Amino acid sequence: MKVYLGGVRGDASWRNRIKPMLTVDYFDPIGSDPEEDFNQHESCDIILHIITPGNCKDFSVDEMKEVIEEVIQDSETFPEKTIVSIIECDDGLSFSIEQYDYISESFHTMSKNGSTVFPLFIDAIEKINSLS
Known about the structure:
About 50% of the residues lie in helices and about 20% in strands.
């Protein structure tokens, strides 16, 4: 079992927070070359996306929507192996109401696509660990 630590561009400190929690192998794409990133994305058993305020802090709502479209695309292409979650407050940052509403709407779409959506990131981690 191997997990691809996806997510959105921007701050990726969430990866460092969850790595010690995982009991399965994982691939962290930060700093990898594009070919390795692509290959791992395709071959990993699970694609995990966690959206945090830090991911989106430097984005307008329109830019955030564009980035979350990449996560939605995974939910369409790889619904059975895509797991999505959120960290609502992170390092003193939180989502604007407009951002949160869009994320909630996106999570509904991803769920309809067949992906697994967890409102609490710890539940996503526990589910992944239980699959090993």
